[in-house]
Amino acid sequence: MRFWGLRVGMLIALLLAVSMFTFGAMNLLGDPLFNILGPVAGDTENPENLAKIEAAKEQFYLDRPLPERYVRWLGDFVTGDFGVRFSASGQPPVSEVIKERLPRTLALSGMAMTFTLAIGIPWGVWSGSTSKKGLDRLSTGVAFFLVSIPNFALGVVLLYAVGFRLGWMPVRFDAGDPFWQRMHQLVLPALTLALGGAAVYQRLLRTDMITTLQEDFILMARAKGLSRRHILFRHALRPSLFSVVTLFGINAGAVFGGALIVELIFGIPGIGSLFVESIFREDFPVVLALVMILTAGFVVMNFVVDVLYSIIDPRVRQ
Amino acid sequence: MTGRQAPLLSVRDLKVVFPTPIGMVHAVDGVSFDLEAGQSMGIVGESGSGKTVTAKTLMNLLPSYALVDGSVNFDGRDLRALAAERKTEKHLWGVEISMVFQDPMTSLNPVKKVGEQIAESVRYHLGQTRTAARRQAGDLLEQVGIPEPGRRLDEYPHQLSGGLRQRVVIAAALACEPRILIADEPTTSLDVTVQKHILDLLDDLRTARGMAMILVTHDLGVVKGRTDEVMVMYAGRTMEEASTEAVFSQQGHPYTEALIETIPKINSASHTRLVPIPGQPPVTTSPPTGCPFADRCRYATDLCVAQGPPLTALGNGHHVACHTPVRTPAAETALAANAARGHTATGLEIHQSGVPIGAVTGGLGEQT
Fold it and tell me: How far apart (Å, rounded) are the C-alpha atoms in residues B51 and B70?
């Protein structure tokens, strides 16, 4: 119970700190009035425009001091109201925009993480235990290649080869609903996101497997007459997973970052593209909401990692 | 051995060679022995004598690059042929022959409950259900003398002491009722106070189950009074083979004699120096033409250097590989001659009394 209390307390403290920081930073960034009103915002000579400016300032609380605006935003945020967009109409509200776009990014990231593990772990187990030196060297080469090439290059090549040439996968993301029936459209983008990570996991797991396989308890498992597969997956894998699990938590942020580019390449209207647009349009409420979501996501992922640690190694449980 | 049924385990001219950067290391160099059902046997030798490699060969645990020659027969089955096509003989290692390892701190999987580690082979080999295997694991824990077995089943290795862990290792090795148990230095890494308990336990379990046991150790004191037979190994070869009693009362090999001298005696005066064996065991990249022990032997003659002594029968199953077996006229003559010239045929300096100089100034014995 105390454990959970501490976790939730940490999440709240972190969200507060990040939101304050972001709120302050964005106000240094520029004047959102231009995006709300257009060129009119600079024209304070004309009384008609001045009135418009004053009205907009009041509508978006831009005439209030920063702390007050922050507290007002926070009050709305905790009730689930993410506020209105900084645009002439303020429509649709931020929560609507996010509700539409977030599931796509979540599905993409989730699928990418699954692929990363599903490819990286068996690959690492195999290369850490094989006695075929030549094949292992080849796989090392492939891994370094995958780690080195940037996401966009891999994405474009996959798009061209699998999408255009082979025609196995749709080339463009079709945003029509119901979206959950279109999950297969995410396979290529998720693979683009996953391959680099899978190669990194393979490198880490390979090294740890080689170390684990020299342990005495592996010799004892062999003396029990267990099959190779049984020894690799039931005895050697779990004690070798620490680096992979650690990276899995840290990598969560990188997956979101990568999703941003991959969404652009494959034309997926997710939060990645929304993020970029909003920063350039100084649409602060949207940026703030996204930052909050990413922070929460990151904390939750690392909480999952801590739970995974204790599952993997009983010595961590106290 | 004649007139009786075929032995349970029969090893003939076993040779194991490891290719290494410094050359071919002959870890085991022509070892033969038999083990009857229910019999216990000690394999004794220093580090690098080939005793552990012999045990690993029996368990099919050698690395794939090891070169093995000779035959290993278990109950009419050729173990080396089975090892080569291991898929067909899934239920032999860990079932009929199993092994207890040296260090219980590292030989249990740190992330698995001890109950699982014991029940594992029962489920894997005998196809028992989870509950049946768990019940059996509990019984085994009780048999190896672990209090509150029901609670211990769900504990992890790090929650147990070294002695308890070794009991768990033993329980896991016994899970499938093996006919041969190989114990490789089972007490070396344990507290002295716990060592006797574990050795007694192994003895009791062996008698109760009628299984055969091979006790591998560097310490002759461990096999004393416990095993039926002892095989003394040096540089991958058998130096002496005899009933345990004969090894202590009428040992024939100078190496065995030297090993016995290294055992601290309870009735010696305090601060008596331990008697080390001078020199180091050879690294056998090229098998010596003569006796491998000659360099460290106070009896060494020119014949010992020129020609390796074959394993010769002395009667009553007592075999010795030595040109000048201890307590024979040949040995007396050789020792007297060496003492007279101050050194042996290999140049080992010795006192007039026949004690090698290195035995006084040299380092301690092995620290495995």
Answer: 16
CA distance A57 to A72: 15
Smallest Cα–Cα separation from A155: which of A199, A120, A186?
Answer: A186
DSSP string, B31-64: EEEEE-TT-EEEEE--TTSSHHHHHHHHTT-S-T
- Put simply, the answer to whether A219 touches B111 (Cβ < 8 Å) is no
Look up the pTM and report it: 0.82
CATH class of B1-96+180-266+279-287: alpha beta
Q: ipTM of the assembly?
A: 0.86
Which residue type is seen at A30? G
Q: Does B156 touch chain A (CB under 8 A)?
A: yes
The structural domains of chain B, with segments of one domain joined by +, span 1-96+180-266+279-287, 100-177
Nearest Cβ partner for A131 among B64, B158, B172: B64
Q: Which domains does chain A have, with CATH numbers?
A: 2-94 (no CATH), 103-312 (1.10.3720.10)
Please check whether residue A278 is in contact with residue A290, taking contact to mean a CB–CB distance below 8 angstroms.
yes
Please report which helix (H) or strand (E) contains residue B181, including its range: strand B180-184
Total beta-carbon pairs less than 8 A apart between chain A and chain B: 72
Answer for the pair B257, B44: CB distance below 8 angstroms, yes or no: no
B90, B92, B109: residue with CB nearest A217: B109
Task: Write the pLDDT tens digit of every residue in B70-85.
Answer: 999 998 888 888 877 7
Q: Rounded CA gap, A21 and A276, in Å?
A: 19
Residue B180's SS3 state is: strand
Query: Rounded to an integer, what distance in angstroms lies between the CA atom of residue A191 and that of residue A23?
Result: 35
Distance CA B141, CA B132 (A): 14
B118 touches chain A (CB under 8 A): no
Strand order from edge to edge, sheet including B212-217? B97-100, B180-184, B212-217, B40-44, B229-234, B237-243, B318-320, B312-315
Interchain proximity B110–A216, CB inside 8 Å = no
**Tens-binned pLDDT, residue by residue, of chain A (318 aa):** 677 788 788 888 988 999 899 888 887 776 777 767 766 666 677 777 777 777 777 777 777 888 888 888 888 888 888 877 777 666 778 888 888 888 888 889 999 999 999 999 999 999 999 888 899 999 999 999 999 998 888 888 888 888 778 877 776 666 666 666 677 788 888 999 999 999 999 999 999 999 999 999 999 999 998 989 999 999 999 999 989 998 888 887 788 778 888 888 888 888 888 888 888 877 888 888 898 888 888 888 888 888 888 888 888 775
State the DSSP H helix or E strand holding residue B206, giving kind and residue range, or none if neither: helix B192-209
Tell me whether A306 touches chain B (CB under 8 Å).
no
B235 touches chain A (CB under 8 A): no
Mutation pick from B111, B174, B179, B184 vs chain A, by most beta carbons of A within 10 Å, is B111
With CA atoms as reference, report the closest residue to B221 among B253, B254, B178, B188: B188
pLDDT digits (tens, 9 = 90+) for B33-62: 999 999 999 999 988 899 999 999 999 899
Hey, which residues 56-115 in chain B have their CB within 8 Å of chain A? 59-61, 64, 90-95, 98-99, 101, 103, 106-113
